[in-house]
Write a structure and sequence with these properties.
Elements (H helix, E strand, L loop, with lengths): L1 H17 L5 H26 L5 H12 L1 H8 L3 H17 L3 E6 L5 E19 L9 E17 L3 E4 L3 E5 L6 E3 L3
Antiparallel strand pairs: 1-2, 2-3, 3-4, 3-5, 5-6
Helix pairs in contact: 1-2, 2-3
Length: 181
């Protein structure tokens, strides 16, 4: 068991370093491997050091626990599911209200998407003030920002929440853009 733990922890740390960019949905996909591997390793350590010392049983339990949101993401991997998630997130951002979408997927299972938003401080954007070839000046514009939290559920599979993220409307393009810390 000890020879497995050190390389496993190293792999887990390396994978977690890669899972930091993109939208909450993209990050959740990237983190699935980390969650499953990390859950198995931690479960194995706990199983090895508690009860009857059964590392295999602990790894299995940890694997299942770490794979919770991954199972939901795998179940919601169709293009229709992804489209509905994007539409629900957009509608919630536009209205500032909870958006819920419930439907039957291609596999016959009920899916539910719930998007909650919360107002955030407005963001100030620097934009070019002159476009006629004169020396460029900058002006400031502010626009609305909201925190977005998306929860996904699939009947018989489970549910999980994506990471909350700050999203602001760009005053020039009028598009909602995820803000990086």
């Amino acid at each position: 068991m000890k020879t497995f733990v050190v390389p496993g922890l190293a792999a887990c740390l390396m994978l977690s370093g890669c899972a930091t960019s993109g939208s909450a949905m993209e990050r959740a996909w990237q983190q699935c491997g980390v969650a499953v591997v990390g859950g198995a390793i931690i479960g194995g350590i706990i199983g090895n050091n508690t009860g009857n010392g059964d590392a295999q049983q602990g790894m299995t339990t940890g694997l299942l626990t770490g794979g919770g949101i991954c199972a939901v993401l795998l179940a919601m991997a169709s293009e229709e599911d992804k489209r509905r998630i994007r539409e629900a997130e957009y509608a919630a951002l536009e209205t500032g209200q909870v958006r819920e979408d419930s439907y039957i997927g291609e596999d016959g299972k009920r899916r539910t998407i719930v998007v909650r938003t919360q107002d955030a401080p407005a963001k100030t954007w620097s934009v070019p003030a002159a476009e006629d070839g004169k020396e460029a000046e900058t002006a400031s514009m502010t626009d609305i920002c909201r925190y977005r939290q998306t929860t996904l559920s699939v009947e018989g599979t489970g549910s999980g929440s994506l990471d909350a993220e700050l999203v602001c409307r760009n005053p020039q393009t009028r598009e909602w853009e995820v803000q990086r810390a």
